[in-house]
């Protein structure tokens, strides 16, 4: 009987001591957290985007003679990306040039005859209008010639090529998606309760998953509205330095370290 009592007492004291130790450790942990106001906040997902990007579409219907760039290739501003068959626009330019020459000659003759009182003012106005119309048609033909070549509007990289040589394309048909990897921006969602201190100029660290590296970033602007349901706001930032390994579409996490940005 004494052995059983002794065993029960040992178990009781062991449980009391274990509970006390756990309680003390918990209090110490809470005190440490409370005394560490600069503890890193949760990481927020960010996406790398290009500020300068566009979809290039064909400005005319026709057959593609050349497509000079591939997916992922770099290009310079003004570089020819593709060219279309320009036989018809060139023929229309010749016709418009001939038509203008004819109406210019008629207008000049009408002017001379009017001085001799052989033409009425109305005939003079008609000749002038026909000449102006021919000039406008010639300018339209010249503009159509320019549409035969598809040139890059800025320096960048081909994100997607959607056409092939010898393919027939319609006017307005998408041909290329272009991005400028040198004008990158970070986009993410931030809690709206940060608004009193999370302002343009705030610096923080961004970890990009694809490169497994950390980069310095700076907040440049906030969205125009707060989402009432999620109590969040869009945030936009930029890298403080250029990094050639970064590309649009990469993602990672924004690491917010403290309320003062230090």
From TrEMBL:
This is RND family efflux transporter, MFP subunit. The keyword Coiled coil applies. One of its GO terms (molecular function) is efflux transmembrane transporter activity. Belongs to the membrane fusion protein (MFP) (TC 8.A.1) family. It comes from Desulfovibrio litoralis DSM 11393. Residues 56-179 form the Multidrug resistance protein MdtA-like barrel-sandwich hybrid domain. Gene3D superfamilies: 2.40.30.170, 2.40.50.100, Helix hairpin bin. PANTHER family: MULTIDRUG RESISTANCE PROTEIN MDTA (PTHR30469). GO terms for cellular component: efflux pump complex. It holds the Pfam family BSH_RND. Residues 124-151 form a coiled coil. Keywords: Coiled coil.
């Amino acid at each position: 009987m004494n052995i059983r009592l002794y065993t029960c007492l040992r178990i009781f004291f062991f449980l009391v001591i274990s509970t006390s130790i756990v309680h003390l450790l918990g209090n110490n942990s809470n005190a440490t957290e409370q005394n560490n106001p600069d503890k890193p906040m949760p990481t927020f997902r960010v996406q790398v985007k290009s500020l300068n990007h566009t979809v290039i579409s064909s400005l005319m219907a026709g057959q593609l003679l050349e497509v000079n760039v591939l997916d992922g290739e770099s290009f310079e501003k003004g570089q020819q990306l593709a060219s279309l068959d320009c036989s018809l626009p060139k023929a229309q330019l010749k016709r418009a040039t001939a038509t203008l020459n004819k109406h210019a000659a008629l207008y000049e003759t009408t002017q001379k005859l009017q001085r001799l009182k052989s033409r009425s003012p109305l005939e003079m106005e008609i000749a002038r209008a026909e000449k102006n119309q021919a000039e406008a048609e010639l300018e339209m033909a010249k503009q159509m010639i320019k549409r035969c070549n598809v040139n890059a509007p800025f320096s960048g990289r081909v994100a997607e090529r959607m056409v092939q040589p010898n393919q027939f394309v319609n006017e307005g048909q998408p041909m290329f998606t272009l991005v400028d990897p040198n004008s990158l921006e970070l986009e993410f969602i931030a809690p709206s309760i940060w608004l009193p201190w999370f302002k343009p100029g705030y610096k923080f660290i961004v970890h990009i998953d694809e490169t497994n590296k950390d980069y310095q970033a700076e907040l440049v602007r906030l969205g125009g509205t707060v989402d009432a349901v999620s109590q969040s706001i869009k945030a936009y930032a930029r890298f403080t330095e250029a990094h050639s390994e970064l590309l649009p579409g990469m993602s990672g996490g924004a690491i917010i370290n403290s309320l003062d940005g230090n």
